[in-house]
């Protein structure tokens, strides 16, 4: 499926094109004829069970969770409960976070969010783990930045339907960095990627990994189910292997592509210019000291 791939650093908050809705019908079970009734049944289940108190129960918000679980109401409800449980159990990642403070992570190009989609229409999120300095950026800040990006990305209906792609670049990873990867941390990462957030990971690509990566992966493996393992692809420094999955014209130059690096700061600043995005982020507990101070 080929969708518009302009290099524009802004979210598409409009309605999905017909071909994307057709794809959702075929692959997610999202039938326009039954969608409203399923959302209504989902809402009734939330109220009846009372396992969480969502800050929103409008159709657009609940649709995210249904799409993430292929319109199976029971599974969507479990995801919704997990989402709020994660926020309640990890307030340091989600509550009263200033978007301005997180922009500094972009300056060191640890997290990069290109302002374009790859051939299928999916967004790409790139982690250059070797650039992370534990004495400069805390684990909490890394989680805060990741969750903030995901909260913005899932506002896009394209992302809700198609999911996203992650590239983890472990080039330059040191044992000093690896020691910070504890089982508890690994569990939280998997919660965000798999069980607690309404964004499906379509594929996760590992590049430039070394023996140090094996230490980290052995910590993560016990938390990975078979479905997630099937979505992980290991490429090392073999760019041709990566290009079998992502056409080079949708990659930065460092991965044999044609684009410059677009960092996290570039993405956040672009999203902060949209009042609708800012309003939704504030409802989630985020703040913006620059905008609020004006």
From TrEMBL:
* InterPro entries named among the record's database cross-references: CRAL-TRIO_dom, CRAL-TRIO_dom_sf, CRAL/TRIO_N_dom, CRAL/TRIO_N_dom_sf
Report the coiled-coil segments.
none
Q: Where are the transmembrane segments?
A: none
A Pfam family recorded for this sequence:
CRAL_TRIO
CRAL-TRIO domain spans which residues? Answer: 101-263
Q: Which GO terms describe its molecular function?
A: phosphatidylinositol bisphosphate binding
This chain's source organism reads Tribolium castaneum
For this entry, the protein name equals Alpha-tocopherol transfer protein-like
Hey, what's the signal peptide range on this chain? none
Originating gene: AUGUSTUS-3.0.2_14093
